[in-house]
């Protein structure tokens, strides 16, 4: 909250507009999930479940040390090694979206200065996207598109394949949750 107050104060000092322009989390998570292969999805779910169920040995001191160090870039490094397909939707697309919203938001239309509050990990990517934009960026490239269920898709049984994939995913999630419940109940 302190960062937003500082941004408001800075914007008032220079006569700038403030833009709150991050991509909706639902779109980011959907695109991230869809970017993963099935083996990566299973590995990610397993990692999250084991992280939730395992006792935490991290002390308050080590937590503070990790938040003050360059842990953002260490996280990106680990992420790019373990789940490289997540970098595009979680980092690069959001950097581009943030840059786009800073440049083209309705709040900015008649303003020469803009103040945006972005995370440290997105700073370089947003600056790059601002400098590299040639004006041909389309909004739909940034927010994603819903699949269109045309007659061609129905004829090719695309919806059946999607239904089966969703059923398989939900079954795996159900089994993992059941196993987690049994572990908690028994332990």
Q: Could you walk me through the main structural features you see in this protein, from its secondary elements to its overall organization?
A:
- By secondary structure, this protein is mostly helical.
- It has a domain at 2-38 and 56-145.
- Helix content is 68%, strand content 3%.
- It contains 10 helices and 2 strands.
- The protein has a two-stranded parallel ribbon.
- Helix 6 (87-104) packs across helix 7 (123-132).
- The two termini are 39 Å apart.
- The model is unreliable at 147-151 (pLDDT under 50).
Segments where pLDDT lies below 50 for 5+ residues?
Answer: 147-151
The N- to C-terminal Cα distance equals 39 Å
Q: Note the run of SSEs as H and E.
A: HEHHHHHEHHHH
Strand content: under 5%
Q: Number of helical runs? A: 10
- Number-wise, the strands total 2
The description of the largest β-sheet is:
2 strands, parallel
- Adjacency order of strands in the biggest sheet: 1-2
Q: Look at the helices and sheets and give the structural class.
A: mainly alpha
Helix content: 55-70%
Overall mean confidence score, pLDDT: 76
**Overall 3D shape:** globular
Computed over alpha carbons, the radius of gyration is 21 Å
